[in-house]
Structures are given as structure tokens and as C-alpha cells.
Design a protein that fits this description.
The radius of gyration is 43 Å and the shape is rod-shaped. The longest helix has 18 residues. It is mainly β and 501 residues long. It has 4 domains: 227 residues, TolB, C-terminal domain (Neuraminidase); 76 residues, Immunoglobulin-like (Sandwich); 72 residues, Immunoglobulin-like, CATH 2.60.40.1080; 82 residues, Sandwich (Immunoglobulin-like), CATH 2.60.40. It contains 2 helices and 43 strands. The strands form 11 sheets. Strands 29, 31, 34, 35 and 36 form a 5-stranded mixed beta sheet that branches. Strands 3-2-1-20 form a 4-stranded antiparallel beta sheet, with no helix packed on it. A 4-stranded antiparallel beta sheet has the order 4-5-6-7, with no helix packed on it.
Length: 501
């Protein structure tokens, strides 16, 4: 078993280390060579032939590799699979006597920058913005402090760096202001440099600046790591030939997202979480949502209508983008809209029934003031015993089987003393026995026009018309409980609560 474990460990470790090694593309300035370069040791793998005299290159929009040529003044697109180049435009630098010396793409801005100078001959150095479609440019600024800059690069914070060579002593690294081309000295790279053969690029995957440079005197061409605090460099390995293009493979964006609630209720807010890899900007499209689009990384969206909706995210890092479309990702569920059915007028100590349309699987929460629920709580039908005269309220929240909740409009209740009725009853109306078991007797000094019996939900169970002053109700046919008796005489309308045993 120990031997088997050892074999497994030996097999796994090399695989994990390979995935962590950054790569780039490299082309010679004075030879027809285009290769992949491993940044950990500067080893190269030949891809195909390239043209000579490239003096700068970088990956731009959509991970396209562009290069500039000091001999032809040409701006090229490079096929990384073969090393072949396509001329996009020919544009000599704006400053007389200058040669194109470098390219650098700002991922955050989405802008390609160019550098021209007299190479190793002291003079001036100029910074440009470059149109990737044809190589045309806009001059930003020219300075003579770093008067022989030979390459530029931009880090993940948008800071541009430039290498100046040709002067006595070691080559110097500068900070470059992209707004006007002015420079600030950072520090020496620790070795002299001259001639063509310098290129620099930033690896976003490891936050490392790499410099491929030519050392005057020994004619060594090495790949080096730049310390961005002081400009000093550390050798990685020998690249073997004068550098024309050095460009780190861009970090690829992968778009993805999620939410904890893919089945919200109508009117609910849904929080989306970005799960993209290597993205710096986001563009969302929400079908059926409010807002319908967003550029936030983790937006919140409200869905007001029932239905199934798509969600799309395009994530980008300035040089590449990725789109993820999830069809029918959000299913908006219907929210209940209950309505309270029942009388808004009640007498004190009256039992009144209230209801709402029943939906299978729903749970009902009734809230009352001015009275108490005596039966039916948590169902669609309740009976309320109203208390002292005044104002009362009845509220209802329905939660359906999908756990969506809806609130009914508050029913305002007026609770009356009903004094006139009591006086009428005490003088001429008698109802007995109450509670009743078999028969309920009603006698009145006035003729009784009609008698109606309602259950606690307000449902009418019995209504009869009679011109007599005496009437009997067979209560044995009624279930035990509370009922409301409505009596109309020649002179009054009377409501009485009765109990059947």
C-alpha cells in the first residue's frame, strides 16, 4: 500500500505544477523566429517563421496579438498559431527621425499605446494611442528626460513603465505618465543595455513584470523579472536571440453567475452573484427584470410578473470577454391576492363571519383589532366576536403552496352599540331559549316579516317570510355552534346572536 501511494503522489505533483506555469509569445528582431516562451525558465518552443525587425508587440482587444515594425513602420496582426503576420497599416512616427520601438495595451482602459524614439541614439521619446484597426495614432506627448526609451509595458493598475538605454552606465526604468508622456525615474535594472532587442510585458496571472533585454558588452539576451518598487531586475534565463516581440499570454475570462433564489415570488428582489474568472467588468441583461440591464458585479433585480426569464452575463477584462446565457433561469411565481369578504358593520358582542376564496395548499393568517377570532383561525373562513363599540380592523395574509405571500387590503370595521335594537327587543321581542337544543321561539309585539339564520362565515342557512307575531325554528337540524339571527319586523331590523347546543 505504501508503494502504491508513492506512485500516485509522484504522478499527481507534476500535473499540478504544469498548470501554474505562465507562458508568452516571443519573436526575434533579427531572425525569422516566432516561438512560445515559458516564463519560469525562458525556454522556447518554435511555432513558425516571422518577419524581421519587429520592435514591439502586445495582446490587445479580444486577445489579438499586434506588433509594430521599425523598418517598415507597419502595424501588424500576428497569428499565434503559425507566426504569420497581416499588415493592417503603415504609419511612420509623428516625430522626424523616430522609429517605432514598443507597444503596450492597457487592459483596464481598453487602449493600445505606442512608443517611438531614435532607438539607442539620444534625442526624444514619444507616447501615442494606437488604433488597433489600422495602426493610425494620436500623439500624446514627447520628452527628452528618458531620451532613448526602447520598450514600454503597463501593469494591472494601469501604470506605464519605460526602459531607457544607450547612456553610460546601467539601463534605467522609468514611470511614464500616459496623459502627457512625461517620465519619473524609478531605478536602474542592474545592467547596461543598448541597441534593439528590448521588450517588456506584465503577467496578470502572477502580478509580475517581465523584461526581455539585450545586455551591451556581453551581447546576452535574457528574460528578467522587474521589481516595480525600484526597477531592479532578476534574471530568469537566456532567450538566445535579440528580442523583437515579447507578449505574455493574456488571462482568459470565463463568465458564470448564480443566485440563491431561482424561483422568486412576484415583486421579489433577486441578488445575483458573479462567479466569473479573471473579469474586471460586467454587462448583465435581465429578461423581465427591473432594471433590465446592469454593469454592477453583483446586481439586485426585481421581478414583477409571473413567467420564465433568461439571464445573460458578459464578463470582460479589457482584452477578452466571455458570455454566459442561462435560458429560463428565473421562474417567477404568482403571489396571492386575497380579498376579505364580510360585513364592515357589526354590533357589539355580535358574531360575524368573514372569508376569502380558498386556494388549495394556502395558509391564512388573520389579524384582528376590536374583537377576537372564535373559530376558523388559519383557514379561509373565520368567525369574529366583536367587542366594545368603536373601530376595528381585520387583516389577512395568505401564503400559498409556493411559499409566496400576499396581503389583503385592511377591512375597516365599525362596531355599533345598536341601542335602538336592544330597546326594541326589550320591549316587544323575545327569543328563547338561548342556547337552544331543539326549538328556538321568536315572539314579537309587531308582525314578523322575515327571519334569516346565518352561520359564522356569513352564509345564509335559512330565510322564511311570515306575517305572524310568533315563529319557531327547528334548531335540531343545525350543528352546534354560534349563529346570527336576522329578524325584520314592521318597525325594525334586529340582529341577535344565538347558540345551538
Amino acid at each position: 500500500m505504501k508503494n502504491l501511494l508513492s506512485i500516485i503522489i509522484i504522478f499527481i505533483l507534476p500535473l499540478s505544477s504544469i498548470g501554474q506555469d505562465s507562458l508568452g509569445y516571443w519573436a526575434s528582431n533579427n531572425k525569422t523566429e516566432f516561438s512560445r516562451i515559458r516564463l519560469s525558465d525562458a525556454s522556447k518552443t518554435f511555432i513558425g517563421p516571422s518577419i524581421k525587425n519587429f520592435t514591439g508587440g502586445d495582446f490587445g482587444t479580444d486577445n489579438v496579438l499586434y506588433a509594430i515594425n521599425s523598418s517598415t513602420h507597419g502595424f501588424y496582426e500576428i497569428d499565434t498559431a503559425t507566426g504569420s503576420s497581416t499588415l493592417l497599416g503603415t504609419n511612420p512616427p509623428a516625430i522626424g527621425g523616430h522609429l517605432w520601438m514598443g507597444l503596450a495595451y492597457d487592459v483596464g482602459e481598453g487602449v493600445m499605446y505606442g512608443l517611438s524614439s531614435k532607438g539607442t541614439n539620444p534625442g526624444t521619446s514619444s507616447i501615442y494611442t494606437i488604433d488597433e484597426s489600422d495602426g493610425s495614432y494620436t500623439l500624446i506627448g514627447t520628452q527628452n528626460t528618458a531620451n532613448a526609451m526602447v520598450c514600454i509595458a503597463i501593469d494591472d493598475n494601469g501604470q506605464m513603465y519605460g526602459l531607457n538605454v544607450g547612456a553610460a552606465g546601467n539601463a534605467m526604468m522609468y514611470l511614464v505618465d500616459k496623459t502627457d508622456g512625461s517620465v519619473t525615474e524609478l531605478g536602474t535594472i542592474g545592467q547596461p543595455g543598448s541597441g534593439f532587442g528590448h521588450a517588456m510585458d506584465f503577467d496578470d496571472a502572477t502580478n509580475t513584470m517581465y523584461l526581455s533585454t539585450f545586455k551591451s558588452g556581453t551581447a546576452q539576451n535574457t528574460l528578467r523579472i522587474v521589481d516595480l518598487t525600484d526597477g531592479s531586475t532578476t534574471e530568469v534565463g537566456n532567450v538566445g536571440s535579440v528580442t523583437g516581440i515579447f507578449a505574455v499570454t493574456p488571462v482568459t475570462v470565463t463568465s458564470d453567475f448564480s443566485t440563491k433564489d431561482t424561483t422568486p415570488c412576484e415583486g421579489s428582489a433577486v441578488q445575483f452573484t458573479d462567479q466569473s474568472v479573471n473579469a474586471t467588468s460586467w454587462s448583465w441583461v435581465f429578461e423581465g427584470g427591473l432594471p433590465p440591464s446592469s454593469n454592477y458585479q453583483n446586481p439586485t433585480v426585481i421581478y414583477n410578473s409571473v413567467g420564465s426569464y433568461d439571464v445573460e452575463l458578459t464578463a470582460s477584462n479589457g482584452s477578452s470577454s466571455s458570455t454566459e446565457l442561462k435560458e429560463g433561469y428565473i421562474t417567477v411565481l404568482q403571489q396571492p391576492s386575497p380579498q376579505i369578504i364580510g360585513d364592515s358593520l357589526a354590533c357589539k358582542n355580535d358574531i360575524v363571519g368573514y372569508s376569502t376564496l380558498e386556494d388549495t395548499g394556502s395558509v391564512y393568517l388573520w389579524t384582528i383589532s376590536g374583537g377576537e377570532i372564535i373559530s376558523g383561525d388559519s383557514t379561509s373562513q373565520i368567525a369574529v366576536l366583536w367587542g366594545a363599540p368603536g373601530d376595528g380592523t381585520l387583516d389577512l395574509t395568505e401564503t400559498n403552496a409556493d411559499t409566496c405571500s400576499g396581503l389583503a387590503e385592511t377591512l375597516e370595521i365599525t362596531i355599533d352599540n345598536c341601542v335602538g335594537i336592544e330597546e326594541n327587543e326589550s320591549g316587544s321581542l323575545h327569543i328563547f331559549p338561548n342556547p337552544a337544543s331543539d326549538v328556538l321561539n321568536i315572539t314579537s309585539g309587531d308582525a314578523i316579516n322575515s327571519v334569516a339564520v346565518l352561520d359564522y362565515t356569513g352564509k345564509q342557512l335559512l330565510k322564511v317570510s311570515t306575517g305572524s307575531k310568533h315563529y319557531k325554528i327547528n334548531t335540531s337540524e343545525l350543528n352546534p355552534g354560534f349563529y346570527l339571527l336576522l329578524i325584520e319586523t314592521e318597525n325594525a331590523g334586529i340582529r341577535r346572536r344565538i347558540v345551538v347546543r
